[in-house]
Amino acid sequence: MGMRSRKVILKLRQAISDYLLQKGILASPYSILIVSGALQALQLISIRLLQKGSTVFLEKPSYLYSLSTFQAAGMHLSGIGMDEEGILPKELKEKNNKSERSILYTIPNFHNPTGILMTEERRKEILQLVEKEQLPILEDDVYGDLWLDNLPPSPLKAADKNGNILYIGSLSKSLSPGLRIGWIVGSQAVIERLADLKMQTDYGSSSLSQKVAYEWLSSGLYEQHLEQIREQLLIRREVTLKTLNEYIGDLGQWRIPQGGFFIWLRVFSDLSMREIYSRSLEKGILLNPGNIYSQTNTAFQISFANAAIEDIETGIQKLGFILRGEG
Ligand SMILES: Cc1ncc(COP(=O)(O)O)c(C=O)c1O
Predict the structure, then answer these.
(1) Which of 18, 91, 238, 290 fits a disulfide with 296 by CB distance 3.0 to 4.6 angstroms?
(2) How far is the CA of 211 from the centre of ligand 1 (A)?
(3) 3-219: what CATH class?
(4) What CATH architecture applies to the domain 224-323?
(5) CA of residue 14 to ligand 1 center, whole Å
(6) Residues 183-219: pLDDT tens digits?
(7) With the C-alpha atoms ordered 158, 163, 165, 168, is the resulting torsion angle positive or negative?
């Protein structure tokens, strides 16, 4: 690696350190590892830090590719239920066996796939519980910057006194998935172990991408960009909710997501999930069915970030007809 790119990389880590400070996370550049997106963060952590045969507790349902990553590394997955406020501490406590090695993987901000935001109160309960149970946490915060109504509560990592929490962030959801820039924050010793594996895996993330990320973060453009993104997401959320009310109405149940871009739609229909899926596909709508995430077989994930507004409207309208048996 040339001297110039080494400098850029340290500068990016410094910029991320400054950015994390705004979230209440105190992390020196040496406790930050740049990775090629949050998915690589999960892969590196699974390979280097998690023990084969140990248990990963995680929200049920959870982010699909995290499941396959943990499984590929030989972990047992143990799903924990959620309510409006996030993952359920009581169930976590019941399932955790202190004598076995385990870790909690959680997405407190605008959870994928349900969109749920963990409340401040729930964060405190979880922090108390993991401290008591000595359960390490892997906190995935890729949606944290996409709040729409209010700033979310501080990340769990901000209250990490004993270096028990590994924190993952990424520019994929808020800026560009193709840039492939994310980060892991942990103790310096852990970051060094992960950096070693990162080096063996791909020699480091593209220095061009790192330079671009540095410019966005350090110039203030990233913050400006987030304001524009929020405006767009607010418009789209509004249209999506309005159309759901109009065409799905009492055939479904959903929450108003306070950030991110997912609506978790539970449907009530005489049709099976498979039938709804294939009839929708015939009409040109590709649904993301809940049963790929867990045994939840009555829900679909709707993303309002990507599709054109007209497509969101016609898609939901058609789904409404299908659920009524008219499509
Ligand atoms: C919760 C969660 N974590 C991680 C990722 C992966 O992000 P990246 O594109 O940065 O690898 C995603 C993308 O869908 C996600 O939803």
Answers:
(1) 290
(2) 21
(3) alpha beta
(4) Alpha-Beta Complex (3.90)
(5) 23
(6) 999 999 999 999 999 999 999 999 999 999 999 999 9
(7) positive
